[in-house]
Fold each of these.
Amino acid sequence: MAQHDSPKPDSQTAAKAGRFAGIGGKLAGLSKRLPSKKVMILSAAGLLFVLLPAFVLPRFLPKPTPKPKIVHTLAQAFSALDAENYEEASRIADLLGEEDTLSNDELGGPPYIRGAVAAHQAQMLWGKDQIRYHLLAARHLQQSEALGFPEGREEAGLEMLGKSLFESDQFVAARPVLEKALKGDPADSASLHGMLMNLYLHGADRDLKKALAHSQAYLSDPDLTNADRQAGLLVCSEIQLSLEDLPGCRETVEKISVNGVVGAGASVIRGQMLMQEAANLLATATDENRAERTTIANQKYDDAIAVFRNPQARSMQATDAARRSMYLIGLCYAQLGNVKAAIDQWARTAKMHMERPEGVAANLQMAEALRKMGRDDEAIEAYRNATSYAGDPQSYANNWISLSAFRDRLNNAYQQYQQAENYERALQMTGLMNPLMPPEKTVEMAAQSHEAWARAILNKAENRSPDEVRASERQAREQLRNAGAVYAQLASLRYDTRDYTEAVWKSGQSYFEGHDYRSAVKTFDAYLRFELRKRRPRVLVSLAECQLSLGHLDPALAELQECLEFYPTDAASYQARLLASRAYLEQNNLKQAESLLHENLDGTALAPASREWRDSLFALGRVLHISGQQEAAVNRLEEAVERYPDAPQTLEARYLIAESYRQSASIPRQKLASDNIETSRVAHARQLQDRLKQALTGYERCEQFLSRRQQQSELTSLEQSILRNCYFARASALFDLGRYEEAIQAYSTATNRYQYAPESLEAYVQIATCYRRLNRNDKARGTLEQAKVVLSRIKPDADYLATTNYSQQDWAKLLDWLKTL
């Protein structure tokens, strides 16, 4: 069969192809009679002759004719658009974008066409779909405007863009576009004036004077239909009422027909005029005529309710007039002082028209009334409903309450809850303010609420029992940790602003005060990376204190050294020395710890009235005690207790004073043992007795104080440790004084109190020693047997070396050995 879809080769080409094919065939036949190696060579040659035509023939074949390229133009797209062939116009617009053949002056053409097509399609739809297409049209037309509307279509583009913005609820953006479109004197100027009068009346920031001007321009159009004119008169009367132009409003309302939906709207305006007259009477009342005017005003409110309840309005439940009437009846009841009736009326309005402006305003009014009545749960729910259906700030439109007034009411409710220290409700308010208020603002308010909540808890804890104080501190720290997390969220919102580091600082400080030291370290590190000057010494100190609390001594010292090196005169440097001395004490570098505390105390800049001077004095006494400088420790600690008897460190200081006296008794004891001069021995003995007695007195005072406190509340871990040590140390002092009967009694009290604690073993051994000193060896052996029983009952996982000098096995061996003595 002939192949008609491909060109035929000419005769010369065909002859060449035939010769190539014949030679190839002969070679293939010859290969059968030749040896294998030669066969391979000849076969390859034959294959070459067979394949060669595939490479040679195309040179002799004619080239196919290319299809002509179709070039689209913007004119073709506009021609289709003007002919209302929207599908074709859209197709060409898309192709023009792909072909990249447009000049710079034509780049706004394709988005213009897409916008015009989307605007047309929106007219064919309803509800949310219609709004979505208007939104799409607005985006395309905004792009076209940015690139430049096509020549000759600027006015039409602005008009379409303004209408699309209006119909997609972008009211703020629509105003300037429609105003600009009007300057071009469009044919449909009445429609634009109608949109603008509504935008300025109902928009987020109302401008009633402009609204009135556009309404008058709208009504001046002689081509308006009667229905459009009636609707325009109704809007005009509403504007005049809002401007409190009652005569003008009354004159406009008289022009409106009493029939139909517009007539029902006019009835609502009449009721509102009665409300305005009543409000004016009350606002201008004097002491002499207040009672009379109140009576007249109340009658006008009653008359307004009757107008709002007219049969025509009730028969049109779905109309704007019906919704407005329901809401306004609630306002009238509120003005008459019937709050319950007002709340009930607003509740019905909100239930029936939740998403409408009247439903939003009713929920807000109801929330305010319920909050003032203390019905907070219901109030919060009403606030939530009001904000949920208010819409986005960009499209907010509610002439019952402006956006700024709405925000003011929400903020006022938040502030009222804050002032009443009802922080839980205040936080609920911040959670429901979005999207009407900027997230940055609501997050900051939430952080402030958590922080204020913590401060209030701590303030109320003053003058309460220690248990209540500790419980309050735990609650406060929880709120401070919450504040830290919310301030961190605020910092992320302010990352690109100057206020970023301020939010980071507050986050870190809240974490720090809330004892979330790990989060505080991360936050303070971030602060130091971004802030090179402000608060840097203070943050370095706070960061170091966090590191110390986490047991990270080297990082803490590095930060404190930076503070002391670069900011030696800053107020934070005193706290830095205190913390650094604490870190050096942990590292057993007692000399350096003491030196830093002397710098704080011996300098002239820090006064004894300051907290840092006080803390340095107590800390120095402790360091001196640990380093074995007992007399110096007593001097410093007694000075501290005398100066600051109510300081939190005073209890520990009193215990350390007693301990220092007991430990310092070792000096006269050694001298007594080595000195042979009788008078000196007497002096040493007296000094030994005096110091032990002072130690004994100190232990007894601490023990009595803590025992009384324990009856009132649970002791802290530090207080428990001090009380335990006092029991054993008091008995030890009595033993050293040779008062063995009293020592046995004191040790017995300690063993009874801490019966199955490892340290009780020390007491049993000392009791046995006392009995031996009293030549009561049977009692001594019995005591050691009792000690072995106690040893067997102590928990296997008890840490013996934490409070004694021996392990469990060592104690067993020691007790067995002591029994042999």
Note: The mean pLDDT is 87.
Amino acid sequence: MKTLVRSLAGLATRAPAYVLVAVIALTVVFGAFSSQVEITDGNEGFAPDAPELLAQDRISELFGDESAVSVLQVIVAGPSGDVVTVDGLAAVETVTQVVAGSGLASLLSESPERPAVVSFLSPLQEALQQGAPLPASDAELKELYGQALEQAPPEFSGFATSLLSDDKDLDAAAAGKGLMLVFIDAPGFDETGDPDAVDPASDFEDFTDLEEQVAAEIRAAPLPDGYSAQPFSIELIFATGDEFQTEIQRLFGFAALIIVVILLFVFWLHPRGTSRLGALRRTGADVLLTMATIFMAITWMNGVGVLLGPSYLDLIDDFGPMNQIIPILLIGLGVDYAIHLTSRYREEVSEGASVNAGMERALRTVGIALVLATVTTAVGFLTNLVSPIPALKDFGLLAAVGIAASFVLMLTFVASVRILLDRRAERGDRLPRAAMGSTGDRLLPQVMERTSFLAERMPVATVIIALLLSGLGAYGVTQLETKFSFTDFVPRPNDLLPTFDTLVEEFGGGFGETTQVLVEGDVATAEAHNAFVEAIENAGTVDGVVSFGDQAARQGPLELLGTLLDENGARFSPPVADAARAAGVGPDLRVAPGADVGALYAAMAAAAPEDTAQVLHDSGDGFDAALVDITTQAGEGGAADLAAGLRDAFAPVTTVGPSAIATSDEIVNDVVITSLRESQVSSLAITVLAAMLLLVVNFWVESRRPLLGVITILPVVMVMLWSFGIMAAVGIPFGPVTATISALAIGIGVPYTIHITHRFQEDRLRFATTERAIRSTTKNTGGALAGSALTTMAGFGILVTASTVPFQQFGFVTAYTIGLAMAAAVLVLPSMLVLWDRWHKRRGEPTVDAHAVEQALDGHAPAREPVYDE
């Protein structure tokens, strides 16, 4: 460690111009590679080995995804709290006509099992089409509606009544709201994701624009007085993606601006012994140098990340959503590193050191703390390489690269530029030494110095209070809700969100959710077929599955078989009927033992090739997979229970050999959250233990005081508990965005505490008493920490003004987590260090091994007051 710092210090002080040229050249090279960065979306990186996620890929591979049925849901509401009325029927007919005359008309999806538009009054509409008289009053309509329900097949009437809001009264034929469903063939994409592979005629963006236009026409339709029609679909709610990206760029631009403004305050040089212009010029130069270095570190990280990516070394899968948090971490660390290095350099030069000597001294003192912080933090993140989640592996590796880049640039680029600038001033006797020495007299250092009274006067009480708060935080962790909702990422305000809330609260989540069950194996056996029939029957009883009577609402091989065997239906197939008789197919669609199911499925494929290909896969050697789409209403909150219920329902299938996996976007999201939570616990424990081990070894080598490593890491553990405890207290759930808070707590908290501990060792040699040492530490290093923390807190606190919930939560949690890290470093850790110091004194031994520390600092231990002599 000492050798590395000494080498970098020697390069920066002896050949700053060459160092500057080399750094700029590397930046250009890494910049060229960083232009190849592509930020990927999706959950693949979070749960790569999850069967539910793999099943989605497998479904696309086996059954294709050229198109999918999108459901436009329309909530009809009336002024009287009842939509089963004549006016309600008129509203339904008007919306139907608007859809039929819109640009979506050619994309309407109609099948023998259902029409393209289904409404809560569909039984009544069916009766009217068959010749029933048009009701002249609400009473007549309700009577006819009741008769239509009784005469309709149970599955049809059951589906229709499920389109009435939860306040429905079937005996009185009344409901406060009704739902209409418009089934549309939405365009799909080539599974490679290549935009050029998309059929221009079915371009998804054009489809979304068209759906928005139709939704606007539905809202503006001339309905009866007091009636409204509110459309909703997933495509509509995410149609403002470009606005979201624009807002994120705006927010991060504001964050950068705020950081610059606060850095101007932190770096402001009082014009003592120099002109105001000179003070302003130096302040501006330090701010610009800091920001330039941070952006260079991000460029280096992205460039190295591309080299480590699949196109080159294949050590990183991709730049997933979680990796977008790393630049924020690098900004926090970069500001911290720059403030500490600049403050120490100013301190040394103000006391008479030359530019070269002052920078060398700053690098060899602060540099030791920086390299320790860098190594500890980087190794902590590298422990994610043992995680089973690739997203966390990539995150850990890229974070370590970025942290190392920040360290190298701070000790080379910043030092070299500052030396080159100040040498000219030194030669011209224009170096503002007196002004540079005024840094410690400013507000933040003075405030931080006053906080030392806690460590001096009441260290035991301070530590006890911190431990009690940690206990509360640990309890809060157990109460922390795990949640992920796609609507959280919808910018506010959004007129569609109230409609979505109505679907959830009054229609059980609506009917836009479909869960697919993929069955793989030899499905063309009598045992597998009959087990499949039993599984479908079981699915009708699973919570979250939409059922008509005792039958689940679904589309699959059995439904297709039933359609082809319906002698009264338009799609009746005699060859399929012959194959069914040969297989002994009964009324419940079970086959006789030992039946040739392969021949039955082959007959289906010959009679309806396209429909069969969507539910049965023929490998060429036989049918090896089946797919069933089940209409569900579990939502995000019930996805885990739904998956478990369907797993149990399909147990008969898995018992006879094939596998059966239920999957949907909601189920995959739940798997992602569960995987992330479980992996975070193990990764966090490994990270903390690794950081503590490194600190223990370092302080044993550096000062023969290994216990300092444990003391240094404990406040960081407290910060994590406090942070998650506050999340639980204010109702912020654990999700993909907030899950990164532990990484921030470690990435920011460990360097903070290392700076305090390392400076305390120096000051304990410098001053004769513990109190003066801790006061000096909190004033100088604590002041720099405060400037660093406040800069990052204010910069990213601007995210609380975001229009999306996750970024609001992230901004809030990031701000207070960094604030807690600073508080732990300048309040709790000094108290622990004072208690540790007093413990050594009671044992009659020196607190610090002076010889070991001087050797660690390469023989540069200061002695401005009598060295430690207690």
Note: Residues 188-202, 863-870 have pLDDT under 50 and may be disordered.
